[in-house]
Each structure stands twice: as structure tokens, then as C-alpha cells.
Amino acid sequence: MIDFRPFYQQIATSRLSDWLDTLPLQLKQWEKQTHGDYAKWVKTIEHLPNLSATLNLSNKVESISTQPLSVGETQRLVHHLKQLMPWRKGPYHLHGIHIDCEWRSDFKWDRVLPHLSPLKDRIILDVGCGSGYHMWRMVGEGAKMVVGIDPTELFLCQFEAVRKLLNNDRRANLIPLGIEQMQPLHAFDTVFSMGVLYHRKSPLDHLSQLKNQLVKGGELVLETLVIDGDVNDVLVPADRYAKMKNVYFIPSVPALINWLEKVGFKNIRCVDEAVTTLDEQRKTEWLENESLIDFLDPQDHSKTLEGYPAPKRAVIIANS
């Protein structure tokens, strides 16, 4: 099983130390109810070789072997990594292997990065971090410590596999919990919530939970689905949105800003809006499932299959 003790040691002497009051017991409970394939996925990580590499995290997530792998070694590495499919957020370039994930998460990062306060020496929380692609890009920007939280066991195992192939780098850590399980720490300089809000049944509670993790004056980076409209416009899908059952509220940008004001955020500004393209989200050999093309009206890509506006995303930055 994955050992979280090194993380406990890391945070024991940091401003996250209060988390140790609850986190170890929560993770013990979590281990008792993991997914049926979790043990198999952990075995896959154990089978990955320990390889020495130089890292490039500033403009991609890349490990470059100090000694090139043989054809057989590369094939074995690809085989192990494909045991952890589907790979959704990426891409990763690991020892000559290109994991071409469903999402070109570097597109989103390139849209977000120019608007951020410098991440150098910051302690960062990434909520709903998936397999951790953006966490490694935050490390590449000089973050002191990046903590991702995501309750999905496969994402944890993908993260640990990537970490092992990045020289077991400990500047980023993934904790398999949801934000609602975190005590208010008021300890992070920057909190990211990207692609999470529309999955929450109570979006204002989610925004309050994000605020409770920030230091006073800290920065929230919120990226979510939006619709066009005024302060009163919010889409509440009747059943599914783009084939997803767990989409509850999609606000307009003015409505979203209003929500942030209601929970006490300041200096709120929308810095980017972008329609999701078929270049950014698509099917690859690392994903056997459907992707964006399957969720859109085949006759009109400006609409989902259900007739709602096609996915459009906004980036909002605010301060606590």
C-alpha cells in the first residue's frame, strides 16, 4: 500500500502541522474501503523501475533518462503504465514515453499561468487534482510544496507512478480525500479548484471550503464551466450534461462572481473564458472511453447531446 508517512514528516514542521490532528486517522479509514483494483494498481507501481533522470517541469512534465532505455525496457514500461488507464489529464513525457492523455492539460495551464501571482516559494493546495499534472507544473514554477487532494484511487496510483519516474520527487503529494473532509487550515498561499465546482451539489459550500484553506489575503484560482448570461443566469441540467450525471450548477460569470462575493472573497476578476475544443479534449490510445466528440450534438458542436450550450470554461481569480 502507499505510504503516507513521508508526507506526515514533511508537514510536521510546516504551517500544515495542524492537519496531523485528523489526517492520519482519516487515511487509515480510507484504506479500509479502497477500490477493488487498488491493490493491483499499487503492484503496478512497485513493478516500475527506479530510473535516474533529469527533470523538466517548467514547460512540460518530463523525465529524461541519464541512460537511454533499451527497446525491451521501454516496452515493459509502456505495458505497466497502460495498466493504469484511462489517463485523463496530461500529457507526460517519461523516459522517452509520451503518455498522450485525454485532456491537453497544458492548454489550460497556459491560459491560467499568466494571471497567477508568482508561485515561487508558495505552499499550494490543488483541489480535485486528478493524476497531478498541474501540480508538477506548479513545482516547475518554484512552489515550495504542492498538496493535491482527490478521492479517486486510480488518480492517486497514476500520480505515484509518475512521481516514481520523476526521481521520486517529494515537492508534490497527493492525498486521497475530498475538500469537505479537510479541517479549516488557513495555511495555503494559493488554492486551485479547476474543474470541480459544477460537480458540487452545494457550490457555495465548496467556495467556503476553499476560502477556509487560504491564508488571509491568499489567492484562489477557480476554473469551471460557465454559460453566457447575467447575474441571475444559472444552468441546472435536468438529468445529464454532456453525458455526465454529476453536473449540478453551471453559472454565468456574473453569477459566479456574485457567489464568490457572498462567501467573502475580494478582488474578484475573470481573467479568461474559452470554449473547450476537440484539440484540448479527445480520445487517444491511453483512453478507451468516450471523449468530447461523443458528448456533442453531431450536427451542431455548439451544443451538447442534450441541447445545452457546449462546454465553456472561465478562470476566476480572487483573494481571501
TrEMBL record:
A single GO molecular function term of this UniProt record: transferase activity, transferring alkyl or aryl (other than methyl) groups
Keyword tRNA processing tagged: yes
GO biological process: tRNA wobble uridine modification
Catalytic activity reported: carboxy-S-adenosyl-L-methionine + 5-hydroxyuridine(34) in tRNA = 5-carboxymethoxyuridine(34) in tRNA + S-adenosyl-L-homocysteine + H(+)
Enzyme Commission no: 2.5.1.-
Residues that bind carboxy-S-adenosyl-L-methionine: K89, W103, K108, G128, D150, P151, T152, I179, E180, M194, Y198, R313
UniProt keyword Transferase, yes or no: yes
Keywords: Transferase, tRNA processing
Family note: Belongs to the class I-like SAM-binding methyltransferase superfamily. CmoB family.
Function of the protein: Catalyzes carboxymethyl transfer from carboxy-S-adenosyl-L-methionine (Cx-SAM) to 5-hydroxyuridine (ho5U) to form 5-carboxymethoxyuridine (cmo5U) at position 34 in tRNAs.
Complex and partners: Homotetramer.
Listed name of the protein: tRNA U34 carboxymethyltransferase
Organism: Actinobacillus indolicus
